Amino acid sequence: xxxxxxxxxxxxxxxxxxxxxxxxxxxxxxxxxxxxxxxxxxxxxxxxxxxxxxxxxxxxxxxxxxxxxxxxxxxxxxxxxxxxxxxxxxxxxxxxxxxxxxxxxxxxxxxxxxxxxxxxxxxxxxxxxxxxxxxxxxxxxxxxxxxxxxxxxxxxxxxxxxxxxxxxxxxxxxxxxxxxxxxxxxxxxxxxxxxxxxxxxxxxxxxxxxxxxxxxxxxxxxxxxxxxxxxxxxxxxxxxxxxxxxxxxxxxxxxxxxxxxxxxxxxxxxxxxxxxxxxxxxxxxxxxxxxxxxxxxxxxxxxxxxxxxxxxxxxxxxxxxxxxxxxxxxxxxxxxxxxxxxxxxxxxxxxxxxxxxxxxxxxxxxxxxxxxxxxxxxxxxxxxxxxxxxxxxxxxxxxxxxxxxxxxxxxxxxxxxxxxxxxxxxxxxx
Length: 430
Known about the structure:
Number of domains: 2
CATH topology of the largest domain: Rossmann fold
Number of strands: 13
Helix content: 40-55%
Oligomer: single chain
CATH class of the largest domain: Alpha Beta
């Protein structure tokens, strides 16, 4: 059976390669942010994305025999610059990777016109999961509302009734990203009887959060959930240590779980946790492949101590999802030189089974998930990672979001968005 499977796979690759003989490359731009107040988090993510593509090009000659042209357009995490980068790159790109909820929301309507898919792994507008409404947007493998649900379930020890009477603070960047989970938190607070306390942090306050932490000391919340980014994360963690807030009651979303923000705090930050759809796995086969093909060849900017960082490895996974979408599109359409419309079909057909995860060398890094015409996220679930004083380690089994609670909210939000942006094209083919 294995020999037959290999023959089928080989014939598919041969057909794709033959049909793509005239193609030179597939252009995949990334709206990066290696400068500005978010650079510390952006750099390892972008390094991981770039190194994975470089590895595929060096080891496999690209995907389906076609080189992948990875490019970065610097935004500094600015929505205005992000829109400029989108306009600059969309002409020949098969995908746009906005890397900001603000940028995502700005380009979302335009993708219907340009017919170019958005790939926003683990970020963006949570209702983009609804593929019938948002036919050009994908946010695998888990959404912000999934993250909020998993965090609450972890705090509740699996029984949401345990949250009744608790006070939960939401320390968040005062930006579309930080505000994204608020509708879910508000709905869950009303349903389960806990007090929800939003505490915004302005862009100018990221490194000086004394007012916010004074409020936390005064309010004495049972838990603080952080939706931070860039310099805000380091500022919040430093303040938490200074004010002696219990670290085991402090939990961040996956973008608030960056090794670089915690290294300087060391043991003082032990117990801090972050929900994550990815897990550090330095011994995964893909890491050895990148080491051999890219790092040892002098084609990477990553430092040796950063290879095991959550964000570097998450960048690898993000490009792996894009690469798998390209491969699936090539197989679906029988040609290698795919365009943006064809890539949409590939991204709507991701099937990260455990077998496929292992084949890609990603063992231990991500949980199985799949997308479809109607489900553009996949909802893989995630792990709670905990800082042990020197690195993040798994602190839970795989957690799952309460999709029964989330899906009606997603449907309502998607319908409201479509109505507010009418006429909005729906995907009636789903």
